[in-house]
Amino acid sequence: MGGIDQVNETRLAPAVANEGNTVENRDSVTKNIPTDAIINLDHGDPTMYEAFWEKMGDRCTVEIKGCDSLSYFSNPKNPCWFLEPKLEEAIRSLHGAVGNAVTDGYSIVVGTGSSHLVNAVLYALTSNHQPNQISVVSAAPYYSAYPEIADLVRSGLYKWAGDARQFDKDEPYIELVTSPNNPNGVIQGSVVNRDGGILVHDLAYYWPQYTPITSSLEFNIMLFTASKCTGHAGSRIGWALVKDKEVAKRMIKFMEVTTIGVSKESQLRVANILQFIADGCKQFGSPQGDNFFEFGQSLMKKRWQILREILKENQMFTIPKYPLDQHCNFFGDITNAHPAFAWMKCKEEIEDCEKLLRGHQILARSGRRFGSDPGFVRVSMVGREDEFNLFIDRLSKIQSFNNGDEKDKANASGNLV
Amino acid sequence: MGGIDQVNETRLAPAVANEGNTVENRDSVTKNIPTDAIINLDHGDPTMYEAFWEKMGDRCTVEIKGCDSLSYFSNPKNPCWFLEPKLEEAIRSLHGAVGNAVTDGYSIVVGTGSSHLVNAVLYALTSNHQPNQISVVSAAPYYSAYPEIADLVRSGLYKWAGDARQFDKDEPYIELVTSPNNPNGVIQGSVVNRDGGILVHDLAYYWPQYTPITSSLEFNIMLFTASKCTGHAGSRIGWALVKDKEVAKRMIKFMEVTTIGVSKESQLRVANILQFIADGCKQFGSPQGDNFFEFGQSLMKKRWQILREILKENQMFTIPKYPLDQHCNFFGDITNAHPAFAWMKCKEEIEDCEKLLRGHQILARSGRRFGSDPGFVRVSMVGREDEFNLFIDRLSKIQSFNNGDEKDKANASGNLV
Fold it and tell me: Which of A128, A247, B136, B294 is most buried, taking the most CB atoms under 10 A from its CB?
């Protein structure tokens, strides 16, 4: 999951409350955004990929008849009886083509997005034998949805225990390792590293458009999602690669009790999309531009170049440094990181970076939500082109704090939207 | 929900373990079932409707392009921002055409099947102000999934407290009222009726093919699902009609944290299906047979006639008595109940009715699972035609217990599959 962005009321409300110049209708706004519109870069809504899929026209169209897929069952032979065989095949095929994860010997569990799988994995790892709640930790800055997921219904099985770096209890724990990390794009490993720990790897962004693919991973539990890989966030399809069959079984049980499986239409459609991408991976530099990851990487690279130039000019924000020039096994070439989010920190005395941006009609997510400092803010880099351009345009107009204007503005902007 | 049937390992396993004569591949089995095959009537898999949808051919086909529905958002103006406007419209249109529920003044919350909505409603009704776990009750025999849903992650907000008729605590509670009831098809109201109780009406089966529609209901929280209404169980689309906007908001919050919304493809497809059915409702007795509920009612009526004849002949089981000849507002005529399940009780000394049927290669769900007696069993009436015929054929061969044979068989049959 990592970068699937929780939509919450307080975030969504400003974007829809202010008729006339708001994100009230994403289509009309983003295809023809009024210049004074609020742009919502709080969510990582991966609409930048629309351009690629529009170009592919009917080549990935699926047709579903009224009489198709009526049954609950996709394949009763599979312990994950609600997993469409075509989706399983496409997932294995795509990981094989990209080389980012080993699938041989792994069970595949499908979920309604990878949030569903995080919920399932917490249940699966704790339901069997624990008398006490197991602590769930993740290294700050961590994905803002983890605490919400872990504590939603006050489970007696598990509880959120915060920043993995601060975890000092001598007891079993689950560590969620997001790599590349949401919000900051950093490639990272586990940090607690003690006995009794179970690792869950959230690899939502371990795809060639975001980061060099340096090895084919084979952790015990690896989570992926169509949203960030292909841009099909509306489909709500995530998958887990799980080594231990008993853990997979308990995840399946969780899916049964919470949703009795996963939408067949979405599975069949995403199967088509993943297979199309896997097939396109074989061609590099084709004139038809069929290689999805070439498209994605090229667009992300361009956006990051533009962002870096602007930040260099206005000297007001810093962003993380990423390792330069790594060999990407997928592209067979030297590439760089182009994370799905910009993790920006105000350089000077502004305490609340989110407020500052809000004052400029840019909605982003405060560092506070990620267990970090409100001096940080996370900004989506994967929205539509015109949204991104407007973001850059507004960012370029934010003046240095030296004259005090921006500081005052930031402190007052809570009332603006 | 009511009749959405949990698939659990122990139930599924026998149906897939015994190669050659099993339900290993539902298509091959049910379209051409070997006569010694195990038939699985444990789940309420509503495949009987396939015949109707096949006849409709391409009239309900949806086409989804690669570039469609990428965003998380369906309609940011709606508090339920992930609900497709077309689905909302179709839901209101269908309830209007059928006259089974009032929708004016209600918020609609969509879920990944109505199990998801039961999970959401428990959260929504308990997360706001309760220091203690709230008891969740339902009148036995109750839907077998309720206890599993309520206790899955040992929530500190709510807990399963069993049969509503036995509930005698003087404290707040949630009562799940399933009507027509799963498993026994009975029309029922709340039974606790004390201060501090909140009712949730699970109306999965309140459609004209199953029961006379005697009034347009307007309870505070009403749950429905495409599975049992249209037969599209694979789509995992359920909806709640919710009077209190704050309760709706908290249900939406639950959907956000657990699955970040609901599959767009399924919503768009089910929107098409519901609208098609609503339009077809205007015609009765049309030669094209476009009225879905006429098809459904006619098939259910036929099956129940056949079942009653067989049960009369072999004198071994009793089934509930339903009120006769009620006026159905939808058909504008006198109709009878034809529940989605047969709730059968062995007449004589057999203690375990499920075992008895298993000995005859029929998988059904034990009364024990519904908080009732193992002398009862729930058998799906909504499977494919050849499955139903095989069930009737086998039922007709079960001989009277008088000679003791069946009793011995029932006691031994645990080892047969």
Answer: B136
pLDDT in tens, B256-308: 999 999 999 999 999 999 999 999 998 888 877 889 999 999 999 999 999 99
Q: What is the pLDDT of residue B212?
A: 98
For CA atoms B40, B41, B45, B48, give the dihedral sign: positive
CB A357 within 8 A of CB A377: yes
Name which residue leads in pLDDT, A261 or B15: A261
Whether B65 sits inside 8 A of A57 (CB atoms) is yes
Query: B273 contacts in A (CB within 8 Å)?
Result: 66
| B residues 260-319 closer than 8 Å to A (CB) | 260-266, 269, 272-273, 276
- Written as six digits, the tokens of A91 are 């997932």
**Most B CBs within 10 Å: which of A25, A59, A73, as the mutation test of the B interface?**
A73
Angle CA A246–A252–A254, to nearest 5: 110
Asked if this assembly's ipTM is beyond 0.95, the reply is no
Eight-class DSSP state of A5: P
Task: Give the gap in angstroms from C-alpha A79 to the nearest C-alpha of chain B.
Answer: 8
Chain B nearest-CA residue for A266: B265
Q: Is the CB of A231 less than 8 angstroms away from the CB of B70?
A: yes
The predicted pLDDT at position B317 comes to 94
The rounded distance, in Å, linking the Cα atoms of A240 and A254 is 13
Q: Strands A173-178, A158-163: parallel, antiparallel or unpaired by DSSP?
A: unpaired
* Single pTM value for the model: 0.91
**A64 interfaces chain B, CB cutoff of 8 Å:** yes
Position A257 scores a pLDDT of 98
How close B339 gets to chain A, by Cα (Å)?
A: 19
- A252 to A146, B41, B259, B288: CA distances (angstroms): 20, 21, 15, 42
Positive or negative CA dihedral for A29, A32, A35, A40? positive
Query: Nearest C-alpha of chain B: how many angstroms from A44?
Result: 9
Residue B58: list chain A partners with CB under 8 A. 65
B380 in helix, strand or coil? strand
Mean pLDDT, rounded, for B163-169: 97
CB contact under 8 A, A65 and B61: yes
Query: What residues are paired with B317 via a beta bridge?
Result: B346
- C-alpha distance from residue A64 to each of A60, B53, B62, B72 (Å): 13, 12, 5, 21
Are B206 and B217 in contact, with CB atoms under 8 Å apart? yes
Per-residue pLDDT, averaged over A14-28, amounts to 32
Paired tokens of B212: 């006379």
**Integer distance in angstroms from the first to the last C-alpha of chain B?**
30
- Return d(Cα A110, Cα A260) in angstroms, integer: 12
Distance CA B24, CA B9 (A): 14
Tell me the sheet residues that pair with A201: A177, A222
Among residues 124-183 of chain B, which lie with CB inside 8 Å of chain A?
127, 145, 148-149, 152-158
What are residue B237's DSSP bridge partners?
Answer: B112
**Structure confidence by residue, pLDDT tens digits, A83-106:** 999 999 999 999 999 999 999 999
Q: Quick one: tokens of A39?
A: 């742009």
Q: What percent of chain B has pLDDT over 70?
A: 88
Of A76, A152, A261, the CB nearest to B24: A76
How far apart, in Å, are the Cα atoms of B401 and each of B161, B347, B356, B357?
A: 37, 9, 11, 13
Quickly count: other Cβ atoms within 10 Å of residue B315's Cβ: 12
Q: How far apart are CA B1 and CA A408, in angstroms?
A: 54
Task: Report the chain A residue with the minimal C-alpha distance to residue B147.
Answer: A257
- Is the per-residue pLDDT at A116 higher than 60? yes
> CB distance from A246 to chain B under 8 Å?
no
Could you give the CA distance from residue A235 to residue B70 in angstroms, rounded to a whole number? 7
CA-based nearest distance A169→chain B, Å: 23
- Per DSSP, the three-state class of B387 is helix
